[in-house]
Amino acid sequence: MLRVDLSLICFLLLAAGLVQGRHVVREHCGDTPKCIETSSFSYTSLFSQRTLDQRIEDLNFWMKKVGAQVKLEIRPTEDKGLGVFALEDIKTGTTLLKASERLVFKRDAIGIRYFRDPNNEQISHFYEFPPLKITDERNQLIIALLYHLRHIDNSLFKEYLLSLPYNQTLAFLRFTDEDLDLLEGDEFLSSKLEGFKESLFDGYQALREVYESSLDVQQRASFLGSDTIPFGDYVWARYIVETRAWTYNGRRYLVPIADFFNLEPREVDFLKYHNVDKTGAATVSAERDFQSGEEVLESYGDNANWLYVAIHGFIPNLNPHECEEIPIITPDFFDQMSPSMRRIAFMLGMGFLHCVKREEWLYLRYGLYNSLLNMDDDEKKACAEQIEMSENQRELLELYLNNCPEKEWKETIVPSILMTISGRIQKYYDISRRIEEIPSDIQAKRPLLSVLKRYYADKIELLNGISRDLSQMDPATIYPRVRTHLERLPA
Q: Residue 480 and residue 485: Cα distance in Å, rounded?
């Protein structure tokens, strides 16, 4: 009975727009996970009726519908749910899927969707949405997903939608207040988690207001079958969009079946192997060779680990994109810099914050900046006058090397950066220690704790490596290494 009352209270507060951030959620309906847990998904029974074998059968049916260009199959994996497996050898660059524009959830087509004629599965027709002026792209995809669920028997996406996960939610909503308290000292991750929560509640509020103000009672009954948008339904659809949709050139696309490729972090260009053409059709290509029977994996872009923690609730193995935001130029130091020095610093990518990872170009930038720091005012001015603003890294480096003198390092920013790194490592050790002190039986009931342990262990290893590399930096090697780096860049 308490569960029902709590759900009702939580829902009414959300519908009234009173729940905005963590502190308000806690005050009115307990911690956020409980609030989410008691806001049920309207279609749970519809999803739960389907067996794993039915889901796999339907997804493999959809594999053909979305235009699989090679022999692929959906199968269960050992520890990652369902995945896509090769039924033949595949070479790097081979087109895997080619989905026509009518099978892709996207912004431009959000007002129109294809529905199958119930009398003929092969015939589709348009259904035009009522005039909902939704400006947020995520909410455009969310309302389309919810509409198709409401009209599932006539939806062209029926088999695909009913095979999506329904009993999971966004990781940042699973963090309890106790989990968040453990993060004291990590302002970056804490702020990201809080920001995602506020974004979700704000997004729900905005979509609900548009829905209720744009449609009359009869239209709402026909559209979603409810006078408002149930919060639990919004959370489910938001989960699908955040965890499965592509972000491609700043736009969101949900491509059925393409969202079942599991993650293998790689140093590859996401846009080279994923394409959306001007019509909205989507193509996926193999990022490496795969043998018949092997699971076909892909990168999800250049995401650092904090995003996987906050959204997905896991940590990838050996993520080459993991980095740590470290202040390079402090605001006080920036105020003391001449305009020409500021200009060169920013052209080198040396802003207030830089997401630092262990890579060659990082140390070259540090080295060039140290040379800049040791120039006199006339040298800085002459250097700045010769360098024109350029987005091409090769041109920028050529201009710098030809016009800016190599200087002895009498002054360097490395000690201050090493001090920052040392303080950050200590904070992460403190968080790790607090997690380790939690009894094992309690840790077993809070699976996010194991994710956080790995997250901070990886952070500490990364920062120790960066610290060693910076400490061993040899000023005499910087310019020769920059020239070598320059030769490897595209013209």
A: 9
